[in-house]
Structure to design on (119 residues):
C-alpha cells in the first residue's frame, strides 16, 4: 500500500514508527515520540526513569539544534556526536534486565532516531 501511495521512486524523508513496511524508503527518521512513550512506560523503575530523562534531554537538544539553521557540516558533526551519545547510552543501560526490550529497540534503530534535519 505504501509503495502505491508514495510511488516506487519516492525520494523524500519519512518520519515513521518502526513498521517494516517503511524499510524500502531510503531516508527514514524513526519517530522519537514513539520511543519516548515506550521509555515513559518504564518510569516506575529507577533506571527506567533515568533512561527516559536521558532520552528526553537528548531529543530536546536535537530539536533546539535543528532550530538554529545549521550548515551541512554542523549537521553532520551533530549527527555523529548524538549517535555516539546514544550508543553510549545503549551500552550503559543494557546491563539492566528491565530495560532489555527498549534497549534492543533503540539499538536496532539508533541511527534513524538522531536524524538532524536538513534545511
Amino acid at each position: 500500500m505504501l509503495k502505491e501511495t508514495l510511488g516506487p521512486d519516492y525520494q523524500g524523508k519519512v518520519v515513521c514508527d518502526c513498521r517494516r513496511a517503511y524499510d524500502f524508503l531510503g531516508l527514514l527518521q524513526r519517530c522519537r515520540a514513539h520511543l519516548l512513550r515506550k521509555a515513559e512506560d518504564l518510569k516506575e523503575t529507577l533506571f527506567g526513569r533515568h533512561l527516559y530523562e536521558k532520552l528526553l534531554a537528548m531529543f530536546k537538544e536535537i530539536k533546539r539544534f535543528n532550530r538554529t539553521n545549521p550548515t551541512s557540516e554542523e549537521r553532520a558533526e551533530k549527527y555523529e556526536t548524538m549517535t555516539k551519545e546514544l550508543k553510549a547510552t545503549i551500552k550503559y543501560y543494557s546491563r539492566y534486565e528491565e530495560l532489555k526490550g527498549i534497549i534492543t529497540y533503540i539499538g536496532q534503530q539508533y541511527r534513524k532516531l538522531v536524524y538532524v534535519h536538513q534545511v
